[in-house]
Amino acid sequence: MKIGIVLGTRPEIIKMAPVIDEIKRNNSELVLIHTGQHYDINMSKQFFIDLNLPLPQYNIGIGSNTAIKQISIIISKLEEILKKEEVDIVLVQGDTNAVLAGALAANKLKIPVGHVEAGLRSFDKNMPEEINRLVADSCSTLYFVPTKETGINLLNEGISHKSIYVTGNTVVDTCKRNINLALKNSKIKDEIKFNNYIALTLHRAENVDDDERLINIVNSLINLPYNIVFPIHPHTRKSLEKLDLYKKIEESEHIQIIKPLGYLDFLYLISQATLALTDSGGVQEEAITLDVPCVTLRYNTERPETITCGGNVLAGTESEEITRNISNILNNESVYESMSSAKNPYGDGDSAKQIYSIIEEHYNENNLKITRADKIMDFEGYYMHVIQENITVAEYENKNKGQIIEQVFTNGRPEYIEEQLNLENKTIIVKKFENEN
After folding, report:
1. Over the Cα atoms of the chain, what is R_g?
2. Are residues 172 and 289 in contact, defined by beta-carbon separation less than 8 angstroms?
């Protein structure tokens, strides 16, 4: 089995590291393609080194182009690479431009796509990442979702439950794999000036490219009565300098600006922080995995389970709200204890093993290939039924040929569809076809 992986940014490298390990452990062939979206050595190659991963066979090197140029260059280059390598499946992870381009290129070449961390939705189409998620999922064959809730998002969009697998989040695998190494070998531990600090990350375009939001965030940072360690993204620094804000942060005695970090150093930084302050999706996941309360500088999140389980809060970008949320956590022992002990919704750290096993099973059963239709399927429509009999999803679909259960509701609330889910006293929506042989 030959598996292609397309990576573009640090979080993708971090989260796909356990999957790469699993591919190597099982002696499958790996084609690793790096788009070079993070062009600085500290933000790309160092992560492969830190995580003891093989360096990519291909580096497209798109650099800091506009999103449209990045996507078009990646698609064009991937067409050449994927035709040459003839992989059995292409894996993408998350919601970056590399994910969008990788999914589109593979789909157009009739290569199945496996989307790791599929189904996440912020329901805000103003976010470039939301469009990337939607398009990538539209192009995918296998969906590896972190939670049942993210699986329900896909069911709501008409994705077949037969293609969706709840595998947890590979970020847990990565943290467990590397935390002891980070605590022992991190080079940043001696550079941090403070014993207690907030770890800050700030890079999303919706914040750093919006002058009003960026000014509000910086004002709150400068006035916070807590120490902050801030590994600064190059693009964020440019935005701060443009607004004459960088010097104000630099001159604040309670804020320590440091260079972008390799993964082990960053893992150490987050794990030792009293609180994570971020606009990153990945940091929301890492924080709850490491039992660190999180405050998110956004108005929505595609990781709502971190909020519902109690480990994360949305603070927006208004100075007063940011300060209020941070103070409420750090000045209230019961709130802090509750957030730091929130149950991790992302599994136990075996996500990569599950993902590989699912792909291998599909490959061995010859189910990975995208083939042309060989029978007529006349779509009749969607129907709603209330089920009174004791019957599972698998039994219902075997009994009612041409019907695919799209959604299941119990007392008006949606449920994640599994083969053995009992449908008695539940309402279902089915997509019905008339089969003509």
Report:
1. 23
2. yes
Task: Compute the C-alpha angle 414/124/17, nearest 5°.
Answer: 80
For the chain, how many residues are written? 437
Amino acid at 76: S
Place of tokens 């066979």: 57
Beta strand spans in 190-240 (E): 198-201, 228-231
Nearby residues of 403 by Cβ (< 8 Å), 6 or more positions away? 396, 397, 430, 431, 432, 433
SS3 label, residue 231: strand
List active site positions.
203
User: At 255, which amino acid appears?
Assistant: I
Which one-letter DSSP state was computed for residue 42?
G
Q: CB neighbours of 169 closer than 8 A, spacing ≥ 6?
A: 15, 117, 146, 285, 346, 347, 351
- Residues 273-306 have pLDDT tens digits of 999 999 999 999 999 999 999 999 999 999 999 9
**The overall pTM is greater than 0.85:** yes
- What is the DSSP-derived secondary structure letter of residue 88? S
* C-beta separation of 355 from 363 below 8 A: no
The tokens 């449908």 sit on which residue? 423
Give the relative orientation of helices 263-271 and 281-289 as an angle to the nearest 10 degrees.
Answer: 60
